[in-house]
Amino acid sequence: MKKIDLSLYVITDENLIKKDIERAVEKAIKGGATVIQYRAKNKDTKDMYEEAVRIKKVCDRYSVPLIINDRVDIALAVNADGVHLGQEDMPVEVARRIVGNEKIIGLSTKMLEQVKQANKLPVDYIGFGSIFPTETKKDVKVSGIEVLKKVLEISIQPVVAIGGINLDNVEEVLQTGCKNIAVVSAVFKDRKNIEENARKLYKIIKKGKKVGFETS
């Protein structure tokens, strides 16, 4: 796998961040975000490109990788560190041919069969969820902690747990052996405390590693 610290994987949300997205991202990074994913499902290409350019400048300043959700073209246009694909997006093999071997590719998975398939694909990590109910995606299927444990057993790639993870339940996720946590609302919902929200999560994740939770 390409060198990337997936510990605190923070994803932007256009419904939670209405303006000054680069400032919000900077606060998250200062709090401990190790990766930023830019996700904008309802913006046009021009707006996405302009926002991604601004975010990339912030990420570069702090040497934090920037991953673009879904859009291979935007990832290449801003020279992001990689792209994250869903099951309905461009096939991973095609994306790999386009972005080359130096870019990071992540893949969302929701069930064990998709995790098994991902083992055969040229991806650098998988996201798995939803672990808990989440406000950012309605009608999402909740997989839960026990399924996450099985994912950790069968995945040959690093696993990033996602979906409804917050300060109240992050230790429960870490105790499965998963050491990489993706969050949206837990960092950005309270705009006044983005940096502090990220810092609290980061401390718990790092503490979890030190006290000897199994990691995968």
Structure, described:
- Helix content is 40%, strand content 16%.
- With 216 residues, the protein is α/β, with parallel strands linked by helices.
- The chain has a single domain (8-210), classed as Aldolase class I (TIM Barrel, Alpha-Beta Barrel), CATH 3.20.20.
- The protein has an eight-stranded parallel barrel, surrounded by six helices.
- Helix 1 (21-31) runs parallel beside helix 2 and helix 1 (21-31) runs parallel beside helix 9.
- The two termini are 14 Å apart.
- The mean pLDDT is 94.
Strand order of the largest sheet: 1-2-3-4-5-6-7-8
Average of per-residue pLDDT values: 94
Total strand segments: 8
CATH topology: TIM Barrel
Helical content stands at 25-40%
Residue runs with pLDDT of under 50 for 5 or more positions: none
Alpha-carbon Rg, integer: 16 Å
Strand content: 15-25%
Largest sheet: 8 strands, parallel, barrel
Question: Which structural class is indicated by helix and strand composition?
Answer: alpha/beta
CATH superfamily: Aldolase class I
